[in-house]
Amino acid sequence: MFDIVIKDGILIDPEALTRRTGSVGIQAGKIAAVTQSEICGKQEINAAGRIVAPGFIDIHGHVDLDAYCGELSLRQGITTTIGGNCGFSPLDVEAFFSAHEKNGFIINQAEMIGHSISLRETVGAVDPLKPATPQQLSRMEAMVEKAFEAGACGLSLGLAYAPGSSNEEVYHLSRLAARYGRIVAVDTRMRTGIDMYSLVEAVDIARQTGARIQISHLVYQYGTGVVDEALAVINRARADGLDIRFDSGMYTQWATHIGAVLFDEDSMAVNGWRLEDILVITGKYNGRRLTMDIYRELRTTAPHTAVVVFTGVEEEIYLALSHPYGMPSTDTGPYAPGEGHPQIAGSFPRYFRQMVGERYELTIMEAVRKATLLPAETLGFPAKGRLRAGMDADLVVFDMKTIMDKAEFGLPNAKPEGIDYVLVNGRLALDKGRLVESTAGQAVRCHKPVYDYQI
Ligand SMILES: [Zn+2]
């Protein structure tokens, strides 16, 4: 008798890329059986006609212990989120994991250490246009090493937020990531919407340091008519033996804070962004487009206000996510209810609806692989993203016929439909769309061996 049995579902195995009807038995937080035989559990979930897959792994998020953001992620079928992206993270990763372990959390969290905002500001490299001094760099190196010792799964660079970062800074820290076997997630230094050099530069980090590179939200960076070229750069680098992968959301419009250096007047002009193309999504002007008065006021008095830039070519999302090394991600972050970008509640259901259900860009097996096994392999999670005995019982049950994102601008936290059950470490957290458990998530510490790496 198992603790829980998910019965008669359409089981998707992302390793074997198979689909077959069967049942999953769960015992003590692990998948204990995947079988076509009749099995019984203390609790049974009828999954007839529904997809049963490993829980989704969101490789690019900013949940960072925010309970509401975590709930919106769970409702999308996400069971593990990767925080600390875009160069912005908790500084003390050990304290972050300890807080998670002490109080529990709604989903599993892995965490990166963020260079361009968090570490730089802490060591006094506060001017985003200037490189860090050698003393500041050596302090940052010590902090990155401490974060990796605590189990951070990667280093995140937000070069768009600190375009003055020197190669020395980037290479020294990335070499540490290579030595620890952790990834480097790069929000590229893009100067304009067609700046391919910024991607070549990110690829070059791999060449110079041996680090594995995850390009962050590729479509937010290059989905402006140049995704083809971006994919060509990535393919060429991969053919050269460099490990370059990427993620992308399901939207072309991207969000960040108005105080970022990329909203300086000369950067706005060089990109051709007009004020009316930028929507405020938090604070007192929530829902309003920018005017010169609002722009000036927010930049000086409320620089953390989030805005969305309406840019990009929708078709490029589908192109990017059809690439075998492209993974879906949310770029979610903490917002008050009613504020924010629809990516916080709609990304993964939108991915399955559009990529599989409507456009036939991916088979269901391939779509599940890219949302589960591929990020698990990229990050080095040996027991996640897989549907077989012995693996962590992070599971999602959804209906491919009805899965639907409901979130949109103005209604960013609308709950998706068609995702019926989500289990986190063998505990039922979402039951027929109802949140029933909010402490089943575990801190996911990476402890791969340190490589004696020299380049
Ligand atoms: Zn981000």
Automatic annotation (TrEMBL):
Residues 322-428 form the Amidohydrolase domain. SUPFAM superfamilies: Composite domain of metallo-dependent hydrolases, Metallo-dependent hydrolases. InterPro entries: Amidohydro_3, Metal-dep_hydrolase_composite, Metal_Hydrolase, Metallo-dep_Hydrolases_sf. One of its GO terms (molecular function) is hydrolase activity, acting on carbon-nitrogen (but not peptide) bonds. It comes from the Bacteria. PANTHER family: COLLAPSIN RESPONSE MEDIATOR PROTEIN (PTHR11647:SF1), HYDRANTOINASE/DIHYDROPYRIMIDINASE FAMILY MEMBER (PTHR11647). This is N-acyl-D-amino-acid deacylase. It comes from Dendrosporobacter quercicolus. The lineage of its organism: Bacteria, Bacillati, Bacillota, Negativicutes, Selenomonadales.
